[in-house]
Amino acid sequence: MERIIIGKIEAYQVNRIREFLEKGLDDIGLEYSNKKVLLKPNLLSGNPPEKAITTHPAVVDAISGILKDHSCDVYIGDSPGYESTARVLKKAGYTGVISRHNLKVSLFDKKIEKRYDGISPYREFLLGDDPDGYDLIINIPKLKSHTMMGLTLGVKNTFGFIHRLEKAKWHLRAGKDREIFARVLIDIHRIVHPDVTILDGITGMDGDGPSNGRVRDFGIMGISKDAFILDHYIERMIGLSQWLPVTNEALRNALVKEYDIVAHGNPEIDDFLMPQSMATDWNIPGRIKGFLRGFFIKKPRLKKDICEGCRICMKVCPANAINFTDNIPVFDYNKCIRCYCCQEMCPNGAIKV
Ligand code: SF4
Ligand code: SF4
């Protein structure tokens, strides 16, 4: 039976994190000596670690130290929302870690075609790096809420493997259907097949994440070889009344196996605030939901007084549903697919749902 290691870690102290990880990786039986390793943190956008938008560099520092002491050749990479990987690494505080451990950076700018017969209606996927080019992939998500999918955890984090030019296409293909998007996320995760997922929940985010929510000191870290069970466990810990789309689809397709939990300290998450988008759409039952989806899913709305006219929302909108009038974004709700990429990427929190 697979195992989840979960621990109470109050602060980003590299030695304390390293101690937890060394024991945890040993507990789950991960072999990691002399390997070519890819670290895949959440590098959504170029923001400092205290904003809790990206995986904290102290976690990557601790992992890198362990791997280097075991003669590994270590790469780090992700495909951010709209900035370059190099820029996000710099702004998210990774410069010291990269030079200290002599990490190699993968810019996720290759074009790797993968064919996969999974649970989504699609079979062809274009990735920014080849997961099969590494002996070991370490998936390092941040524990955050997510306006479209409820939470972003281990399975969702591997969406970053999709080539940057193709991310919008996947949002467009799924449209307003979160179940289809969840199945796409699951297929991508299974193509990437990380060897271990290490969840950074020391600080995280709730409310209208993954960029503009509330920063929270959850004080937890999790380790598992299987991101499906780790995501399942975190949703249980938060105390949700229904499974979120990714876990729901994973359960339907028998991808959530039985698991053991090894807990260190007393890890708990209290009063987790889910995104406001869940208040309406999520509680509409089955078939009715399909019909009413267009009416009930919340629309993105502008807070004009905060908007600085940077046009990032327009650049990231997969549906071309944002135009500018007098330097102010205007939404075309007939085109809008309610993916909330605009809300996710607005650097000023000027888009609400
Ligand atoms: S990304 Fe935000 S600040 Fe920039 S134009 Fe759009 S709404 Fe305004
Ligand atoms: S306007 Fe915003 S929510 Fe609507 S499709 Fe564009 S990015 Fe997605």
Index terms:
single chain, 353 residues, alpha/beta, Rossmann fold, Alpha-Beta Plaits, 2 domains, eleven-stranded mixed beta sheet, 12 helices, 31% helix, 22% strand, globular, binds iron/sulfur cluster
Notes on the protein architecture:
The chain contains 12 helices and 17 strands. With 353 residues, it is of the alpha/beta class. The chain folds into 2 domains: 2-264, Rossmann fold (3-Layer(aba) Sandwich); 299-352, Alpha-Beta Plaits. It is globular. The mean pLDDT is 95. One iron/sulfur cluster (SF4) binds at residues 302, 307-313, 329, 346, 348, 350-351.
What is the CATH domain class of the largest domain? Alpha Beta
Low-confidence stretches: none
SS summary, helix count: 12
- Cα distance spanning the termini: 41 Å
Ligand identities: iron/sulfur cluster
Strand and helix layout:
Layout: E1 2-8, H1 14-27, E2 36-41, H2 57-69, E3 73-77, H3 85-91, H4 95-100, E4 104-106, E5 112-115, E6 124-127, E7 136-140, E8 142-146, E9 150-152, H5 154-157, H6 167-174, H7 178-192, E10 196-206, E11 214-216, E12 220-224, H8 227-238, H9 245-252, E13 259-264, H10 286-296, E14 301-302, H11 312-316, E15 322-325, E16 328-331, H12 341-345, E17 351-352
Parallel strand pairs: 1-13, 2-3, 2-7, 3-4, 7-10, 8-10
Antiparallel strand pairs: 1-12, 5-6, 8-9, 10-11, 10-12, 14-17, 15-16
The protein binds iron/sulfur cluster (2 copies).
One iron/sulfur cluster (SF4) is lined by residues 302, 307-313, 329, 346, 348, 350-351.
